Amino acid sequence: MVKTRSTRNKVPGSSPQPMEESAEDKVQEKSDYTAEELASLAFDHIKDKIKDKLDHSLPDILILPGGREGDKKGLDLASRIDPGIDIGGERERGGKDRMFKKDKISLEMTKRQEEIMKKSVITSDFEKKESAPPVLVSRYKLKKMRKAEREKSAGSNWFDMPAPEMTEELKNDLKVLQMRETLDRSHHYKKSDWKKLPKYFQVGRVIEGPGEFYSARIPKKQRKRTIVEELLADQDFKKYQKRKFSELQAKKQALMRRRKKKSFTKT
C-alpha cells in the first residue's frame, strides 16, 4: 500500500521526511486483531485527532449556521467577550512612569468625596460640639443666619471686604486718622464725616518700586507696625507737638490772668 504525506503540516522549503503510520492505515493493513490491539489502535486514533486540532488554532470569530431567515452568512460569534467597561490596570502608551488608569479613577473618587464632605454636617470637630446641628431649619432662623453672614462683609459692591477684629492698636490708628487735620496744619484735609469708628476697613502697606533708590526709602529699623508708633518716632512731629503744647499753655495762662484782673476790679 502506498502512503502519501499530508499537505496540512507541510512546511515550505523543507525536505520530504518519512511519514508516521496513522491508526487508520494500520487497521486497513491487517484485518485480524485481538481486543487489546484494537483498543490501542483506537487510543492512537483519538490521539491523532487531538494533535490535528491543536496544530490549527481556533479563529477569533466562529461562524455558526442559522440566524435570520434568508441570511446565508449565519451567525458571527466572537471568541472574546467585550463587556464595554474599562476596569483599568493597563499602562498608557508613551512613557515609563505613567500613572495607571486605576490610580486616575481613585483620584477622581477622592476629589468627589472631598466635595461631598464639604456639604456634610458631620465634621472633624463634631464630637466637641454640645449638640448636633439641626437638619431642618425654620425660615426665621434661616433669615437670621443669612443676615449674620451678610454682616460679616461689606457686600459685593465693596468686593466682599471683611470686618476685621477691632483691637486697641487699630482703634488708636483710626482716631489718629480722624485728627489728621490737627496733627499737621501744613496740609489741608477734608473734614471727617465719621461719627463713630467704621466697621469695614482694611489697612495696607505701600511697597516701594524697583526704580526707587535706597536713600529714598525708609530703613527697616525705622519702620513701625502702627501709625501711632510712626508718629511717636518722628522727630519733626515731636517738635511740632511741643510747640503747639507750649502755645496752648501760654494761652491758658493769659486767660487766667485776665479773669483775675476782672475779679479784682469788681471787688
TrEMBL record:
MF GO annotations: RNA binding
GO biological process, one term: RNA processing
Fcf2 pre-rRNA processing C-terminal domain location: 151-244
UniProt keyword annotations, A-Z: Nucleus
Domain of life: Eukaryota
Sequence segments annotated as region (Disordered): 1-31
Subcellular location: Nucleus, Nucleolus
Protein name: Fcf2 pre-rRNA processing C-terminal domain-containing protein
Source organism per UniProt: Amphimedon queenslandica (Sponge)
Phylogenetic lineage: Eukaryota, Metazoa, Porifera, Demospongiae, Heteroscleromorpha
